[in-house]
């Protein structure tokens, strides 16, 4: 009997203590075990992350879109076209002028009348001088065009002579005195032609400068000149060629 009781006592203690030990791990591990000791399956704070993300994204996206677009487009589209179209569409409507408009309309016509009276007409002598100046400028322009053509032709001839001299120099036999003398003679002639071309070019530059100055003076004196028709007719009759007999 004593042996059987001693054998049963450990079994009874294990049977009685077994449910208490098995029920502890679920509550004890959650209460005592720190977060950094738990596994990913046991980590419960993942629910807190979802609850924090919802209130941040929703309220910020809604209030920013509504107040900006609606008032700006409506205020800018209305005030420009209707006011201008109504005033232009009914120009014949009877409207009383503002207090200052009637007084401003009358003196606005007076400067126009005085301006017409204050026009200074040129004399026959001035108009005659301008006509002769214009003729002189036309002659100068024609002469300049001819000099420019001559200068260009001279430059082309100089290029041909220079190319011929280079070809002659390549074929030159230094031991042949006749060839050397002929080459030197042509070189001297070419240098004289180049010197004359340079002098003609400098002269042409002075002619162009004089022509430009003369044209500027003509424009300043004659561009704004106003003459009467009677004075113009007198000058034009003087300039008319004599009839052939």
TrEMBL record:
Compositionally biased tracts (Low complexity): 97-114
- Signal sequence interval, chain numbering: 1-22
Q: Where is this region: Disordered?
A: 39-116
UniProt keywords (A-Z) are: Signal
| Top-level taxon | Bacteria
Q: Report whether Signal shows up as a keyword of the record.
A: yes
Q: This protein is called what?
A: Uncharacterized protein
């Amino acid at each position: 009997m004593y042996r059987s009781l001693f054998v049963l006592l450990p079994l009874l203690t294990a049977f009685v203590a077994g449910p208490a030990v098995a029920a502890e791990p679920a509550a004890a591990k959650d209460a005592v075990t720190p977060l950094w000791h738990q596994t990913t399956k046991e980590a419960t704070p993942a629910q807190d992350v979802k609850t924090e993300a919802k209130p941040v994204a929703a309220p910020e996206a809604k209030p920013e879109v509504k107040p900006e677009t609606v008032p700006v487009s409506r205020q800018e589209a209305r005030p420009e076209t209707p006011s201008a179209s109504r005033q232009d569409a009914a120009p014949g409507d009877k409207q009383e002028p503002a207090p200052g408009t009637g007084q401003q309309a009358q003196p606005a016509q007076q400067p126009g009348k005085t301006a017409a009276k204050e026009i200074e007409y040129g004399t026959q002598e001035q108009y005659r001088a301008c006509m002769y100046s214009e003729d002189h400028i036309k002659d100068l322009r024609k002469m300049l065009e001819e000099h420019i053509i001559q200068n260009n032709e001279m430059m082309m001839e100089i290029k041909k002579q220079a190319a011929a001299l280079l070809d002659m120099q390549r074929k030159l036999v230094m031991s042949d005195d006749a060839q050397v003398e002929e080459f030197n003679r042509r070189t001297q002639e070419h240098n004289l032609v180049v010197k004359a071309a340079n002098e003609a070019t400098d002269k042409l530059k002075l002619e162009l400068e004089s022509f430009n100055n003369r044209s500027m003076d003509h424009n300043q004196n004659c561009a704004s000149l106003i003459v009467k028709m009677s004075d113009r007719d007198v000058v034009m009759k003087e300039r008319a060629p004599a009839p052939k007999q």
